[in-house]
Amino acid sequence: MARRPSGAVYDHLGAKLGMGDAANALLGINQGFAWSMTVIMKIDLVGPKSRGLAVGLNELAGYLAVGVTAYLTGYLASEYGLRPAPIYLGVAYAILGAGLSILLVRDTREYVRLETAAHARQASPTSFREIFVLTSFRDRNLFTACSGVHAGTCGGFG
Q: Residue 66: CA atoms inside 13 Å, Cβ hemisphere, count?
């Protein structure tokens, strides 16, 4: 077995190189693009009547996966050590996700076209200013949904 530097050296290098900040930035990019796109794609697939169910099932699946992964990485770390065993699970997830995406995932553009064709066209799109005023001042329910833990999810930012 090859000898490696102690965990303290890795921790020092990681802190010096900003690896924690970089990992958080990558996680944020993933949440902004990949996770949000899966929600939109599922909403496109189920149509207007089951959107809440689609979002709920997506959240359930996501948090269940986070819980199972935390359990599995904890188990791997306790059995085989903190490095490198738990990272192998992440590598396996990445390979599995890429493979499934390439083989099974299809664009939902046609579903969107079908749905938009079934609805009447709006006379003019709502401007950012109109959305901001509505969610901030005119509609109490929208204001409540946009405040607190939901900050940043309304008014065109979410």
A: 5
